[in-house]
User: Fold this.
Amino acid sequence: MRRDILHPGAGKLKYEIREIVGFARSLEKWRIPILWENIGDPVKKGEPVAQWIKDIVREKAGEDLSYAYSETEGALGSREFLAAQVNRRPLLCPSAVSPPLSGALNGVLAEPAKVSAGDILFFNGLGDAVAKVFGFLRREARVLGPSPAYSTLSSAEAAHSGYEHLTYRLDPANGWMPDMDDVELKVRYNDAVAGILLINPDNPTGAVYPVEILREFVRIAKTYGLFIVCDETYANIVYGGEGTAALSQVIGDVPGIALRSLSKEVPWPGARCGWAEVYNRHADPCFDAYVRSLLDAKRLEVCSTSLPQLCIPGIMADPRYPEHLARRAAMFARRAEEAYRALSGITGISIVKPRGALYASAVFDPAALADSQGRGRTLPVKDSGLQEYIQEKTRGVEPDKRFVYWLLASTGICVVPLSGFASELPGFRFTLLEHDDDKRREIYATLGDAVRRYLA
Ligand SMILES: Cc1ncc(COP(=O)(O)O)c(C=O)c1O
Assistant:
């Protein structure tokens, strides 16, 4: 090549959740049945899609316009429906929904943001939205995000800048809550930071942020002139009694974007249908121009897939939908309890009980991972060839990835190392998704046993 054609951010595109699949597949020749605990697809893991939802989709698929392009922003009726939903979210009284946090509140309750259909923008799944939100930011403008973080978000931010993703700490010793001092210090001393990203409920930790934490993010954004991106993929998968809010309910007059999707709550990940809710677009001309660039970028693609968008009002306005969401939340609450029980109380590893989303993350004590004889920890595997293969593949890899490889070879369980989530904490993420109750409990029990053996 006479010119270097590589984008400076190319090396930053990492998606460990799927990369681990390649490694798991390489074990096929030893005939190890893989238990896929890596990907957050409820349907793949056996959850049946509700018949009434399938009926709505079938009916829409019978209409000719479902086969047409939609407007670039998305189908107007669906955007009007979603905008009305945003506008119905109530103003929250913080003390009524969660325990107060010391000093975090300034006592002022801002009005919830109001939007119109023009503030809703559809994408082909949030994967597409994230690529645009970060891809069309000015190179030097950085977005501070959580660590650990869902890797699509952290990788997209890193790739857009060409540098490592800038992060603030989520603290496992404090229920995975964000370290708000860390957030503020990183914002104050780095004027490249133009925005803050949060994920609520969070992937990979399962944390749900109390209203006071959300208000604190808003306060910091307002103080330093930033915008907020809040990934609300799991907004309707909250359990464990945690009170929280949508960004629109606390943002006041700060510019912001919330990202929502059909993937996990319907669930319909194969629809590739997500949308951005833009708040206070006109509060800042630069933010307004940036939002316009997202729409212009989408226009080059014409539009996002029409059928799932057109199904949204029918599904979400159906009187069965609230019951559907409540039933699923209760189901994941039970599974979160099972996952927590299987991995809590083991010396050398800690787990926080998830309160939302579809995952749990366990964190190793780094001291427990170090092997006093310096040989590196292992798990028993049946075949000596496989053992040699894993010995070879684990040479020089991160300590948590080493555990993940041995776990795969020993048990067939495929989890994701926490180091794959822009995190320096060694650990792993697994899902609450296996729909077969016996199989899921067996997976969690095996996971607990494997951790005990590994650290023994
Ligand atoms: C936090 C978060 N954001 C975005 C996505 C992507 O969702 P979509 O299927 O809409 O692309 C996921 C998928 O797992 C996620 O966990």
In short: The two ends are 53 Å apart (CA to CA). The first helix runs from residue 16 to 25.
